[in-house]
């Protein structure tokens, strides 16, 4: 089988599905991670907010290049192919209407898709139509937590209209325990087992995204414990689909 995991940013597919991706590759499936918001920042100054994230990540202005390299190392651990699109992260995007930044705070990250970005949704839908083979299994984020770029990806793939599976956005959901799927009456899931070696690969693939660990954890040990805690009850991963 051919699987295409849609990753809003370089780290999302590894964070949410790394163990399952590793298991699928071991089984002989072809797996690709398609990162949507992988483009360079547009020309011109970036916001103070974006600069503050670069400082926390310790990447400076090379953030996209650093994260691209991290993604390559992470995907090699999992055995997945890497595909990248040229859409900039929301922290770099500006409104096509007034040229003002879309995102200038943590709150803006979760404020929902703006109407003026609807052309971006359409462009992404068309790009996915070209990039994603018809016979592949598409796996999209559920957009739990409501991050703008996660909503962008889910909205575009659903507009595409192809059969789609969904993964829960980890670790956005960990404070909420079992994910509450908004339209769960229309959705069901299949449980995909992940063995101990898959867990170890998952943890290693997340660790490769070293600039991003501080967003959620104090250090790599805390990350490994969180991933184990997420994996342990089911020793697998739920992948959702519409009825």
Structure commentary:
- The chain is α/β, with parallel strands linked by helices and 243 residues long.
- The chain has a single domain, classed as LmbE-like (Rossmann fold, 3-Layer(aba) Sandwich), CATH 3.40.50.10320.
- Helix content is 40%, strand content 16%.
- Strands 3-2-1-4-5-7-6 form a 7-stranded mixed sheet, with helices on both faces.
- α1 runs parallel beside α3, α1 packs antiparallel against α7 and α7 runs antiparallel to α8.
- The longest helix has 16 residues.
- The mean pLDDT is 94.
Labels describing this entry:
243 residues; seven-stranded mixed beta sheet; 7 strands; single chain; Rossmann fold; alpha/beta
Short summary of the structure?
This protein has 243 residues and is an alpha/beta fold. Helix content is 40%, strand content 16%. The chain has helices at residues 12-27, 48-57, 63-78, 106-109, 118-131, 148-160, 196-207, 220-231, and strands at 2-7, 30-35, 81-84, 137-141, 164-167, 187-193, 236-242.
The total count of helices amounts to: 8
* Overall shape: globular
Q: Roughly how much helix do the residues carry, as a percent range? A: 25-40%
Distance between the termini: 21 Å
The second-level CATH architecture is 3-Layer(aba) Sandwich
* Number of individual domains: 1
Q: What is the name of the CATH superfamily? A: LmbE-like
Q: Name the strands of the widest sheet in spatial order.
A: 3-2-1-4-5-7-6
Radius of gyration: 17 Å
């Amino acid at each position: 089988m051919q699987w295409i995991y849609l990753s809003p940013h370089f780290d999302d597919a590894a964070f949410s599905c790394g163990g399952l991706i590793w298991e699928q590759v071991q089984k002989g499936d072809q797996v690709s991670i398609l990162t949507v918001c992988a483009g360079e920042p547009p020309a011109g100054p970036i916001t103070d907010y974006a600069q503050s994230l670069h400082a926390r990540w310790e990447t400076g202005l090379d953030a996209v290049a650093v994260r691209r390299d991290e993604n390559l190392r992470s995907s090699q651990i999992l055995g997945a192919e890497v595909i990248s699109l040229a859409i900039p992260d929301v922290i770099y995007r500006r409104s096509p209407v007034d040229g003002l930044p879309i995102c200038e705070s943590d709150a803006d990250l979760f404020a929902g898709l703006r109407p003026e970005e609807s052309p971006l949704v359409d462009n992404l839908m068309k790009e996915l139509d070209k990039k994603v083979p018809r016979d592949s299994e598409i796996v999209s984020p559920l957009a739990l937590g409501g991050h703008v770029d996660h909503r962008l990806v889910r909205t575009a793939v659903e507009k595409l209209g192809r059969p789609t599976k969904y993964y829960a956005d980890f670790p956005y959901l960990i404070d909420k325990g079992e994910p509450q799927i908004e339209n769960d009456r229309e959705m069901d899931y299949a449980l995909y087992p992940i063995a101990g070696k898959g867990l170890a690969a998952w943890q290693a693939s997340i660790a490769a995204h070293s600039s991003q660990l501080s967003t959620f954890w104090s250090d790599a040990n805390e990350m490994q414990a969180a991933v184990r805690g997420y994996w342990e009850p089911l020793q697998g991963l739920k992948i959702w689909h519409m009825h």
